[in-house]
Amino acid sequence: MSRARNWKLLRNQVIGFQQLPGSATAKLRTVWCRNHSNMIYPTVSIGIGSYNNAGYLEILLDSVRAQTYPAIELIVVDDCSVDNSVAVVQQWMERTGYPVTFVRHEQNQGLVRTFSHCTQLATGSYLSLVGSDDVLEPELIALTVAEFARQPPSCGVVYTDCRLIDADGKEIASSFLRYFNPAYADQPPQGNLIVPLLRGLYLPTVTTTVRREALEAVGPHDETLFSEDLDMWLRISRKFRFVHLPGTLGAYRVHNRSAIHTNRLSLNETYFRIYRKAYFEGPEEWAAARHSLADHAEHYYASEGPEAVARLWYAFKETRLPKVGLFWLMARLGIKYSTLRPLMSR
């Protein structure tokens, strides 16, 4: 069967699946993926950034192994974990025989450099970067590749929703998109996502996959940042379209070591660095960027960041928002946000 005919078949199958009810869709998708063994599949690289999540790693690795899509390149980069994460990966490789490119950092290099290393090692046509505590649904990669096949080359990213789970695997929320910003849950945006991303759209990295050409077009990860995803999504949006794939095809785990709990200041500082790159265009993008800058400055102040006065002053000069100016004055006077906020809500 020719490659062109393969892609045409793949596109037609996706269109047919979208017209079926949920339970029937799931069953037929699984059967289809297992029965079309004579097709030519583009390789999908799954890069796992591992750091001190030994208790969750095997669950994630098993979910990669359970993918119905047959052409997966699995890469695990351990960022000098101090728990037994390395042993978990090695024992899993020996037990399952599943092929893994496994690399260990001799010194801790941080999240962005770890994912950057995964990207450098990847050889697939598509790349998915996954945290070591998350979980993939079995059909995630198969359906994502099928959606890429249905889209033109201008589609650089396909994303879908996922669940939120706690440390024990219990569901916190059925929708990542709705949990973090309900405004985008019913009609997830597509195309150029710069404004939605600046307005508070959070993409679940665990269920987001990027076309290799998009990565090559925008260049490597900015390793000076604490968090890589927002900067990369903004840069890709400038040149490629994002497409939303309906469904819930993974699980994002939230626990006491998650970045959203342990690194709030670093996440806010990352946005300040992104803003200073000044690659926004037009009044709508700049308005959204300044709105986000004001929010991050407030969060930095609320988290008692050591440079709150400087951060707030910079944000006030950029936005000219009275609220930000008030926060700057209070921070300069040594008044904590926790003291000020109740007075403002009266």
UniProtKB/TrEMBL annotation:
The Glycosyltransferase 2-like domain, residue ranges: 45-162
Keywords: Transferase
Entry-linked InterPro entries: Glyco_trans_2-like, Nucleotide-diphossugar_trans
Transmembrane segment boundaries: none
GO MF annotations in UniProt: hexosyltransferase activity
Pfam families in the record: Glycos_transf_2
Superkingdom to which the source organism belongs: Bacteria
Protein name: Glycosyltransferase
